[in-house]
């Protein structure tokens, strides 16, 4: 990974080559754009982003059915560039994570209004499968909860913000490897929202998660709290020397809604409890 990051930072042409060749590799293309933006600013990041988007532009011209997927990838690039620019200017992960959420919500709203026909077809197909499952399971039609276009838009929005966040984390790690060894570990482990930020995020998230049709939007809004919970988990595992399997287990549990809600509460109460100070023991700092 270090060799790849060094190659990207040799020049704009090298970064463009990697972004173009890695368009299909999860997180890598957007992370290259984010790394260039973090180090050199939006203008250079934009010039590399064009090459990252080029394959999707070509495929969309060849097959219009791929336009929604191209828009999603475009949204990921825009969101990760916005987050990288915020992180570059204010050096604050809370501000960057909130910026990612705002941009992802905007992209989801545009997606829902721009691709209503494709979304309607997808929703109809899913609801038909739900009805078939209900008939086979003996569920009453009145008890069946179907999905809407805006439910789908929220799902895509959640996917966009998670993809952009992981790409930004990868880019920041690359930047630390090259220019600030050990800095990313310290920066990520200390990630914390203020009390006001936690209240606002959980307040909006709880209102949205409470309703089935808006639940994806709720999980989108509360991504900063999930990031806090992740920082707490990484910090405690490192300080207690528990090993990688504990982190793997933590992220597997996040796939399930009940444990994801618990993680949200952990991220929320960290602003008051400060788990890392209470439950960590002194340990020697290791390399990034």
SSE arrangement:
Blueprint: H1 2-8, H2 12-21, H3 28-40, H4 42-62, H5 67-90, H6 93-114, H7 116-137, H8 149-179, H9 183-189, H10 195-209, H11 215-221, H12 223-240, H13 244-253, H14 257-273, H15 275-279
How is this structure best described in words?
The structure is a single chain. By secondary structure, this protein is mainly α. It contains 15 helices and no strands. Helix 12 packs antiparallel against helix 13 (244-253). The model is unreliable at 283-288 (pLDDT under 50).
Characterize this entry briefly:
The chain has 288 residues and is an all-alpha fold. The protein is 80% helix and 0% strand.
Relevant terms:
globular; about 290 residues; about 80% helix; mainly alpha
* Helical amount: over 70%
Q: What structural class results from the helix and strand content?
A: mainly alpha
Helix count?
15
Strand content: under 5%
Distance between the ends: 13 Å
What value does the Rg take, in angstroms?
20 Å
Give unreliable regions as ranges: 283-288
Number of strands: 0
């Amino acid at each position: 990974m270090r060799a790849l990051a060094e190659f990207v930072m040799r020049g704009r042409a090298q970064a463009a080559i990697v972004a173009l060749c890695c368009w299909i590799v999860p997180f890598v293309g957007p992370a290259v754009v984010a790394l260039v933006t973090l180090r050199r600013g939006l203008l250079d990041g934009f010039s590399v982003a064009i090459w990252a988007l080029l394959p999707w532009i070509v495929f969309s011209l060849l097959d219009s059915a791929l336009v929604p997927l191209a828009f999603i990838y475009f949204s990921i690039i825009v969101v990760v560039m916005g987050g990288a620019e915020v992180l570059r200017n204010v050096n604050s992960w809370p501000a960057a994570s909130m910026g990612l959420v705002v941009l992802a919500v905007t992209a989801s709203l545009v997606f829902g209004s721009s691709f209503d026909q494709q979304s309607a077809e997808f929703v109809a197909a899913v609801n038909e499968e739900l009805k078939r499952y209900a008939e086979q399971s003996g569920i009453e039609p009145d008890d069946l909860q179907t999905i809407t276009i805006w439910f789908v838009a929220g799902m895509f929005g959640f996917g966009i913000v998670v993809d952009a966040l992981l790409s930004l984390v990868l880019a920041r790690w690359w930047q630390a490897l090259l220019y600030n060894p050990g800095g990313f570990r310290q920066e990520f482990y200390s990630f914390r929202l203020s009390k006001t930020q936690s209240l606002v995020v959980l307040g909006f998230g709880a209102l949205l998660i409470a309703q089935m049709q808006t639940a994806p939007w709720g999980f989108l809004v509360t991504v900063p709290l999930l990031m806090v919970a992740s920082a707490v988990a990484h910090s405690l595992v490192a300080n207690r020397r528990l090993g990688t399997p504990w982190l793997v287990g933590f992220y597997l549990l996040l796939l399930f809604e009940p444990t994801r809600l618990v993680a949200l509460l952990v991220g929320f109460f960290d602003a008051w409890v400060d788990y890392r100070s209470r439950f960590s023991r002194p340990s020697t700092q290791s390399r990034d």
